[in-house]
Amino acid sequence: MTLAIKEMVYMNKWLSAGEGVLAKDSYKGYEYMVVSYGMHPCAYIALTKDQPYYKVADYDDVRISCHGGCTFVEWGYEGVYDQTYKVIGWDYGHYTDFSGSYLSTGHPLSVPKGKKWTTKEIIDECENVIDQLYVLEHSELYYK
């Protein structure tokens, strides 16, 4: 399933999710993808009915450690994942992150020296989140 990994390029315009898929793969039975929206990247993990947080309705109820915390929970995702998947995600558009809006506006909420995330760094974080989900799914791992 692995697509060629594309590097994140920060722009001063918004892209649709379909335009900006940087990576899509699976790890330990979980599918994930990294998407550029032009201004900043986001990460998403698709959950199936037997995986943790499949039935969660609000991102505040997702207890995982990731950059800025979970900020997205929906059924399916823009034609990439159908409605049988619960998709959770988070973004890299926080105050300490670089935003493409600074490229054209110099907007004060955009940090000119903020962190520019690479696709590889975001993939590593996806795998870290999946490791957390995997342990939740396999409670026997708590006692090893």
Task: Kindly describe this structure.
With 144 residues, the chain is of the alpha+beta class. It has one domain (21-143). Helix content is 17%, strand content 26%. It has two helices and five strands, in the order βββββαα. It has helices at 101-105, 119-137, and strands spanning 21-27, 30-36, 41-47, 72-77, 81-91. Strands 1-2-3-5-4 form a five-stranded antiparallel β-sheet. A hairpin with a 4-residue loop joins strand 2 (30-36) and strand 3. The longest helix is centred in the C-terminal third of the chain and has 19 residues, at 119-137. The protein is globular. The termini are far apart.
Oligomer: single chain
Total separate domains = 1
Kindly report how far apart the N and C termini lie: 32 Å
Strand order of the largest sheet: 1-2-3-5-4
Secondary structure class reads alpha+beta
Task: Quote the average pLDDT.
Answer: 87
Strand and helix order: EEEEEHH
Q: What does the largest sheet look like?
A: 5 strands, antiparallel
Report helical residue fraction.
10-25%
Radius of gyration, CA atoms, in whole angstroms: 16 Å
Number of H- or I-type helical stretches: 2
Please name the defining characteristics of this protein.
144 residues, alpha+beta, 2 helices, 5 strands, 26% strand, globular
Short description:
Helices cover about 15% and strands about 25% of the residues.
